[in-house]
Design brief:
Layout lengths: L1 H13 L2 H7 L11 H7 L6 H9 L8 H26 L6 H22 L7 H26 L24 H18 L13 H14 L4 H12 L12 H17 L3 H14 L5 H19 L11 H16 L2 H10 L1 H6 L3 H5 L2 H16 L9 H11 L23 H13 L10 H13 L1
């Protein structure tokens, strides 16, 4: 305990909130991996209250009198939570280990909130609130995963795919602890936004960080509509807030990303592009994971707003190119079969990240490019028209997969211009049908005319 409370008093003396927040982490520092084990073994359940009191109320203490009892309660609860974590790691908890850890950490979180609400914790200690809230959410997810495994309803682990931990599992499992954690974090949000202290000492400096934590929790719960309540509350209190540029850049990047995603899901694509672009530009140059996450939504937004493929200068990272590269190649070639294959191949990923419907709408761009190629291949400059039956044949041909992994698309180089007979394409379609082949898209002339009308309108 000596090490932890020596660091604790030094952090209070130097007003170093980051160190104070890291000290309340359930994960030991890399330089001293046994720190938490020593901290727990230095006391027992009967003496922990008096031991913590001795360190907090020592004669040379730097803890303000009005805050001492609050810090004592927090570190007693923290000691108990560390005990639950260590027992879980050692395998002594055969059942309900994650639930016990969550309940113990929830007590830590409640005491931290009480410290800010009634004991006068200052704004420079906000990293303590950040750390407690962050791990409350983590332990809640683990507790729900444990419960899901016990009842056997699947979705034991929510896959993050290395991009974000706010994607849903795709199953409608119960998230009792995460919902409970969301209510606790919402109390933190209220604590920050309702503070009336001068801005120099206000808890409002933690508002965007707390909002981001709520966003992540609501997204995980697939209750994105609740995020709009936070946005409305922030907009209503904007007059009492300092400019967004005064807040830490990390808070603002995450906030604008989530605001952009919310607009994206509401199909407000221009607002989405504005916020996602701002988040991408503010993102640290080495934070590639965050950039990938932003681009996951920014690329479909750009595609919808501009009705064209992203420029080469965008330099999409490999992981983003893996998501969209095949689709974009299909759109460029006007290959409906290739487009459908690429969309279906990653349907689980697209649905988890909530971008499937937006990408599916880009089929119109594929049809547009196909129509353009048909017009080029018609080769009649005096009568620049394409017969409906020719375009219908092109749609059927483009929708049909040829060979293993290959797809039809019409080539339109300058050498090919005017050298392809669309009537021949129709005859080829007839011959292939007579040979017993079936096409993926069987449309009559009325359907083809509707598609053309829709493309002309847009």
């Amino acid at each position: 305990m000596d090490t932890i409370f020596r660091i604790f008093h030094h952090a209070l003396y130097t007003r170093d909130g980051t160190v104070l927040g890291n000290l309340l982490s359930p994960i030991p520092p890399t330089g001293d991996p046994l720190l938490l084990q020593r901290f727990y073994k230095d006391s027992n359940v009967f003496d922990i209250q008096s031991d913590i009191t001795q360190y907090i109320k020592a004669p040379q203490t730097t803890v303000p009198k009005e805050q001492r009892n609050a810090w004592i309660d927090i570190y007693v609860a923290y000691w108990k939570a560390i005990g639950e974590i260590l027992r879980a790691e050692s395998g002594n908890h055969r059942n309900d280990w994650a639930i016990k850890v969550y309940e113990a950490w929830k007590e830590v979180m409640n005491l931290v909130i009480r410290g800010y609400g009634s004991s006068g914790f200052q704004s420079w200690t906000l990293p303590v609130l950040y750390t407690a809230g962050k791990y409350l959410r983590v332990f809640a997810i683990k507790a729900d995963d444990e419960q899901a495994a016990k009842v056997g309803n699947g979705a034991v682990k929510m896959d993050t795919d290395g991009i974000g931990d706010d994607v849903t599992s795709g199953a409608f499992e119960k998230n009792e602890r995460l919902e409970d954690a969301a209510r606790v974090i919402n109390r933190v949000f209220t604590l920050c936004i309702s503070d009336r202290a001068p801005m120099e000492e206000s808890r409002k400096w933690g508002l965007y960080h707390t909002t981001n934590l709520l966003f992540k929790t609501y997204f995980k719960l697939n209750s994105i509509s609740l995020s709009k309540n936070c946005l409305r509350a922030i907009q209503a209190s904007a007059i009492d807030m300092p400019p967004m540029s005064h807040f830490p850049k990390a808070h603002i990047v995450t906030f604008r990303y989530y605001v952009g995603v919310i607009h994206f899901l509401d199909e407000e694509y221009h607002k989405a592009e504005e916020n996602l672009t701002a988040a991408y530009r503010m993102c640290h140059k080495d934070a590639q994971t965050n950039k990938n996450l932003i681009l996951t939504y920014l690329v479909p937004t750009y595609l919808h707003n501009t009705r064209r493929l992203p420029k080469v200068s965008l330099e999409l990272p490999n992981i983003v190119d893996e998501l969209f590269g095949g689709l974009f190649q299909a759109i460029k070639n006007g290959s409906l079969g290739h487009f459908t294959f690429e969309l279906d191949a990653q349907i689980n990923v697209f649905v988890k990240r909530r971008i499937y419907l937006s990408l599916e709408r880009s089929r119109e761009l594929c049809l547009r490019n196909l129509l353009k190629r048909c017009w080029i291949l018609a080769g009649d400059k005096e009568k620049p028209r394409v017969k409906v039956k020719d375009w219908a044949a092109a749609v059927r041909w483009s929708s049909k997969a040829i060979g293993e992994g290959g797809y039809n698309h019409i080539q339109t180089s300058d050498a090919d211009r005017g050298n392809v007979d669309m009537e021949g394409s129709v005859e080829d379609v007839k011959e292939r049908r007579e040979a017993g082949e079936r096409f993926d898209s069987e449309m009559d002339d009325d359907e083809v005319e509707c598609l053309i009308s829709g493309l002309i309108y847009k």
